[in-house]
Design brief:
By secondary structure, this protein is an all-alpha fold. The protein has 14 helices and two strands. A two-stranded antiparallel ribbon has the order 1-2. A hairpin with a 2-residue loop joins strand 1 (84-85) and strand 2. It is globular and about 45 Å long.
Length: 282
């Protein structure tokens, strides 16, 4: 998937115009690195469903803008109050809390402006807007973040934790996969397989995040290690132990790999991605 990264980075670099402080803060966070998993998923699902990935770059960039906005807001003092993101000072540390808040708002709204510029049929753009808005909204990612805040300082069940992560993490990954399908005009069967893949990949990704918060270090992760314990959050590690969390991550990864089998040989990149994310160290 390295072939996608230069295209994605070039598009993101040209996405934010303006020389004011908020535009600068938006660029600081948007161009600040990261795995770019979500935009790569947009392009790859477009490809495996028979579309042309290059036409989907606005969709891919829009998903990454929403993801970046969520990270800016997640780091704010009123949320997780994290001073480090992707190995650099968090946006609010670099530019101040008010400017960081506005930078996040700016990226969220720019995402939908960017979606509207895609060179795909108008009905597909409309559907993509609806899918991304639902995934990012109060019944999706924001709903998961709300649950995450409510879960602090109290023990929660494994079912509640899975509900939280399905909203907080999986929904935007699912939207990325769906946007690729929408751009390509995928069949209902392909969309179903993409949704199953996204669920397995997203759940495994979050579980590995929980594991790395315990086993990793700040320098490698690029963000504060041990923050879950500091905030007294229930995680897969606290509920299942390290070995149990690793087993669950592997099980969800295997489910994602099975879902990718629906795409035959074309799904090999998706299978490889799932396996590599399960074994990542940051």
């Amino acid at each position: 998937m390295k072939r996608y990264l230069p295209q994605i980075e070039e598009y993101l670099r040209s996405a934010v115009s303006g020389t004011d402080v908020v535009s600068e803060a938006m660029r600081y966070s948007l161009e600040g690195g990261g795995k770019r998993i979500r935009p790569c998923l947009v392009l790859e699902f477009c490809r495996v469903c028979g579309g042309e990935p290059a036409t989907t770059l606005p969709f891919a960039a829009a998903v990454e803008m929403v993801h970046t906005y969520s990270l800016i807001h997640d780091d704010l003092p009123c949320m997780d109050d994290d001073a480090l993101r992707r190995g650099k000072p968090s946006c609010h540390v670099q530019y101040g809390e008010a400017n960081a808040l506005l930078a996040g708002d700016g990226l969220l709204t720019l995402a939908f402006e960017t979606l509207a510029k895609a060179s795909v049929p108008a009905n597909r753009i409309a559907e993509a807007c609806a899918v991304l808005a639902a995934a990012a909204g109060h019944r999706g990612m924001i709903g998961g973040q709300t649950m995450d805040l409510q879960n602090e300082d109290r023990a929660v069940s494994l079912e509640t934790l899975r509900q939280t992560d399905a909203l907080k993490t999986v929904e935007l990954i699912r939207a990325a996969c769906m946007l690729g399908c929408i751009a390509a005009g995928a069949s209902p069967q392909q969309r179903e397989a993409a949704a199953d893949y996204a669920y397995g990949l997203g759940m495994a990704f979050q579980i590995v995040d929980d594991i790395l918060d315990v086993t990793g270090d700040t320098a490698t992760l690029g963000k504060p290690a041990g923050s879950d314990e500091t905030q007294h959050k229930s995680t897969y590690v606290t509920l299942c132990g390290l070995d149990g969390a690793r087993r669950d991550a592997r099980a969800f990864t295997d489910a994602a790999i099975r879902a990718a089998d629906a795409f035959g040989e074309a799904g090999e990149t998706l299978r490889t991605l799932a396996a590599s994310l399960c074994n990542r160290n940051k």
